[in-house]
Amino acid sequence: MKSPAHETSSTSSIEDVSLAQTSTNPPKTFRELGVIDSLCEACDSLGYSTPTPIQAHCIPVALQGRDLIGLAETGSGKTAAFTIPLLQALMDNPQQYHSLILAPTRELAQQISQTVKALGAFISVRCALLIGGVDMIPQAIALAKKPHVIVATPGRLLDHLENTKGFSLRHLKYLVLDEADRLLDLDFGPILDKLLRLLPSRKTYLFSATISSKVESLQRASLSNPAKISVSTKNQTATNLLQSYLFIPHKFKDIYLVHLLNELAGQMGILFTRTIMETQRLALLLRNLGFPAIPIHGQLSQSARLGSLNKFRTRSRTLLIATDVAARGLDIPAVDFVINCDLPQDSKTYIHRVGRTARAGKSGRAFSVVTQYDVEVWLRIESALGKKVDEHKPEKDEVMIFADRVHDAQRIAISALREQNQDGKGARSKGGSRHRKRGRDEMDQEEA
The Helicase ATP-binding domain covers which part of the protein (predicted)? Predict the structure, then answer.
């Protein structure tokens, strides 16, 4: 017998709500979208002055009681686009275990939980966060308090459904699948199938950056007659983003980077590298030179990764050194600049990286370091952008003033990295291979 989750219509019943069909005068306030006063106050308190495009188009449709497919990237305001309708529906029909929001990674789930609590502060919303890598007992205690909203990664949610006494979602009213493409990329498919069979008939919102065949199968299995709203940013960067590149010899890369960071001192920035090793090396080098840098990558423990993010958000560290995978899904609004220390291999990743700054109407800067080995890749990125990017040309004499200090810091960083690697090899020989098959509790942790 099929569960209600699978008794849905095919993709032919999806209604495309194109942005062209809507008013040419976009709404200037959340009140115009039909949002109740208490939630409008919460939006004001959080600095959400004007709805973003995804919010302006999703919220009215969701408030009509429709299932929803939202196609939008991280940083578009999609979290509020699905949270506001959930909370408004909760106000109309208060109950425990009202809404469930599923996210692919622990960090993203934590960010969503913070948004739910902030938007729900004026209406006393109780929210529980269920993620892997931490003790289940405090989470079980939070569930025993009958929260209105649960934010979870799929593996940990299933653990609680199977093992936490008295916890059931049989009266659930709303389900959100956030970053559905990544949920499926991280092999959560079988767990999602199991969860959907356990859940009752409900309203469902699916948000994704892309629609793959896997996502199409998921929407067929979980949504009923949905409206699809797309806010495309393909090959686009924000108009308030100033992009530039530095063309430099590879051997002087660190020196030019330090000079650039000296010019940007005091501002919040994310520096992207291609590998975990380079993330570690660069963080050590910059700290040796007095820069408040902190790394984030998939080999850090869960507490260390959350610690890095919290230090960056609270500005106790103003430089976050990150790999692409570790930074995916992070929504940090106050980033002043991005530096591509290592060029990405494609324009999609470039756009994703530089999109970490110049958000919500604020201006931002993006710098890309291009060496003699990167010219072909850079030309491909420029071609995809459809424009020539300006070159940032500092005076070489001013840059090379930093050479001796940078060379000393390089030696210290490499020595420290060797010591770390030796310690890591010893720990791995005791603890077994890192490349074992990940258990359910580890599936919500990015690997790089």
Answer: 59-229
The span from the CA of 159 to the CA of 28, in Å, is: 43
Other Cβ atoms within 10 Å of 319 Cβ, number: 23
CA distance 30 to 62: 14
CA angle 18, 20, 26 (to 5 degrees): 105
The mean predicted confidence, pLDDT, of the chain is: 87
The pair of three-digit structure tokens given for residue 403, joined into one six-digit string: 């050479």
The H or E element that residue 80 is part of is helix 78-92
Are 46 and 84 in contact by the 8 Å Cβ rule? The answer is no
Give Cα 344 to chain centroid, integer Å. Answer: 18
Average pLDDT over residues 382-406: 94
- Token pair 């420029």 is found at 382
pTM for this predicted structure: 0.70
Residue pair 231/19 in contact (Cβ under 8 Å)? The answer is yes
Rounded Cα distance, 172 and 166, in Å: 14
For the chain, list the domains and their CATH numbers.
4-230 (3.40.50.300), 241-424 (3.40.50.300)
- pLDDT, tens digit, for every residue of 92-145? 999 999 999 999 988 889 999 999 999 999 999 999 999 998 899 999 999 999
Residue 14 banded pLDDT, cuts 50, 70, 90:
low
Token reading at 179: 């970053």
Return d(Cα 15, Cα 225) in angstroms, integer.
7
Cα distances (Å, whole numbers) of residue 146 to 150, 156, 166, 169? 10, 17, 10, 11
If pLDDT is split at 50, 70 and 90, which confidence band does 349 have?
confident
